[in-house]
Write a structure and sequence with these properties.
Length: 105
Amino acid sequence: MEDGDAIVIMASKAGQPSNPAWFHNLMAHPDTTVQLGAAVRQVHARVATSDERTRLWSKFLSIYPGVDFYERNAGDREIPIIVLDPPSDGLRPSRLADAESVACA
């Protein structure tokens, strides 16, 4: 989902008790690229703040009400919402070659 200049994703893992492996990889390597259709974008990943999460969770629910089931199924695990911001340092092409790519399906 887009939110201003950012892309927002959810590490739901369909409400399983643990976070998906890609979430841990993304947190370890937050400077990456994402592909939406034919467009490849450079991003910096971070977990949404508490206030952002509240607002963004409501947006996710309005798009896909099924995430409510994921939240109930997750039990004590708070499903992370990840904000993929445009990089503040203007990730240069030379650094892009070193960046990790993360595929989110």
